[in-house]
Specification:
heterodimer; A: mainly alpha; B: 164 residues; mainly alpha; rod-shaped; cell membrane (chain A); ion transport (chain A)
């Protein structure tokens, strides 16, 4: 690394590259090249599958692995029951998939596999991906809302106890805040993941360039940056969990709106 | 920023593969495996609560049994005490009546004996009197040469015996 006068581009980690040979794959005129992004989605699914498979032993007295998986399902179950109530249980499969998919993707993207030549790709740092997930969640909210309440679902935009003269003012504001939800949902995750990864890359470029510039710079710039990187890496692991949690929590809150209106 | 720079060429592949892989996650893991995991948890919970209920029922039954045993035990003890008391009473009554019988017998014997003693004494006294009368006659005849009739002698003896 040092020999090639490393020039660290903090954005390069987000570049999508088709895996050799799949460049030209098309479906109905759309390019569906199997990219490094798709590759890591596959890895995420496999890791998640193996994780949950380990919890399927169905023993009465659970082992550690089964306990861990049951902790996660119980966590989602409790969250949905707390936010939605008894009807929330039927959303467990979706919210669990969403939460675990994002969580595993975030954590896999943080793995220091670069040192063995594999470059992790955090697909949750792409708003195309987070956007699709947000749209799926939002669609579920709309479908459930209109399915359960019909046109009465629009009363969501008039909170309880709003004085009649205020309705024309309140309703548009509520409507806008409602329509902003998928964007905030998608952007929050995308921004949090991207910012963390950029920060880590920038700091790593400080470490590399500082050390290459000589012992003085290495001690003055490189070492503190390295120590900071360790701290920020720990923070990023926390953020990975928190962002997955926030995504799942907000989805469950929005579903609650659709289930119960206000 | 590759997210925007590559948007036009990569969005379709991103969306396509995300739908594929998230679809697999949802249908295979979310709908296929998670309910089974939760089933296991629910099964365990119901098993635990069932076991707890069974244990509680067993404890309650044991408590009830102990209570019943205690009541019965108390009854038995009371009955035993009643029997003992009755036996004691009976024994006391029997011994008392026996004692009474013995006492009466003794009293009777004593009374008989006293009567016999009294009779014997009277008989002895009469004998002493008659002997004394004869002796007095003999003494008078010998000393004074006077013949005293028996009644006179008897009268004198009686007087003498009374005066000592």
């Amino acid at each position: 690394m040092a020999a090639e006068q490393a020039k660290v581009d903090p954005m390069k980690q987000f570049a999508i590259e088709p895996i050799a040979g799949t460049q030209g794959w098309e479906l109905a005129g759309f390019n569906i090249a199997f990219t490094n992004s798709a590759m890591w989605m596959l890895v995420t699914v496999v890791v998640l599958f193996l994780f949950v498979l380990g919890g399927m032993k169905r023993e009465l007295v659970p082992g550690r692995w089964q306990m861990m998986v049951e902790t996660f399902t119980g966590f989602i179950d409790n969250m949905l029951e707390a936010n939605i109530g008894k009807e929330g249980r039927k959303y467990v499969p979706y919210v669990f998939s969403l939460f675990m998919f994002i969580l595993v993707a975030n954590l896999l993207g943080l793995l220091p596999l670069g040192i063995v030549g594999i470059h992790p790709f955090t697909f949750t740092s792409h708003f195309t991906v987070t956007g699709v997930l947000a749209i799926i969640s939002f669609s579920i909210v709309l479908l459930v809302g209109f399915w359960k309440h019909g046109l009465h679902f629009f009363s969501l935009f008039v909170p309880h106890g709003t004085p009649l003269p205020m309705v024309p003012v309140i309703a548009p504001i509520e409507f806008i805040s409602f329509m902003v939800r998928p964007f905030s949902l998608a952007l929050r995750l995308f921004v949090a993941m991207m910012a963390g990864h950029v920060l880590l890359k920038v700091l790593s470029s400080f470490v590399i360039d500082g050390t290459n510039a000589g012992l003085g710079f290495g001690a003055l710039v490189g070492l503190p940056s390295f120590i900071l990187m360790i701290g920020i890496s720990a923070l990023e692991i926390l953020v990975a969990g928190i962002q997955a949690y926030v995504f799942a929590l907000l989805t469950s809150l929005y579903i609650n709106d659709a289930e119960h209106l206000h | 920023m590759p997210q925007i720079a590559q948007l036009a060429e990569t969005w379709s592949s991103q969306v396509f593969w995300l739908l594929i892989f998230f679809g697999i996650t949802f249908f295979v893991i979310g709908r296929g495996m998670v309910p089974k995991v939760m089933d296991t948890v629910a099964q365990r919970d119901s098993q635990i609560s069932g076991d707890l209920a069974a244990a509680k029922a067993a404890r309650d039954a044991a408590d009830a049994e102990e209570e019943a045993w205690r009541v019965k035990e108390n009854e038995n003890r009371a009955a035993a005490q009643a029997i003992v008391a009755k036996a004691k009473d009976e024994a006391a009554a029997t011994s008392e009546s026996r004692l009474k019988a013995a006492q009466t017998r003794l009293d009777k014997k004593l009374a008989d004996a006293e009567t016999r003693i009294a009779e014997a004494r009277t008989a002895a006294l009469t004998e002493v009197e008659s002997v004394a009368v004869e002796a007095a006659q003999d003494i008078v005849a010998t000393l004074a040469g006077v013949k005293v009739t028996k009644p006179t002698a008897a009268k004198a003896v009686k007087e003498a015996m009374i005066h000592g």
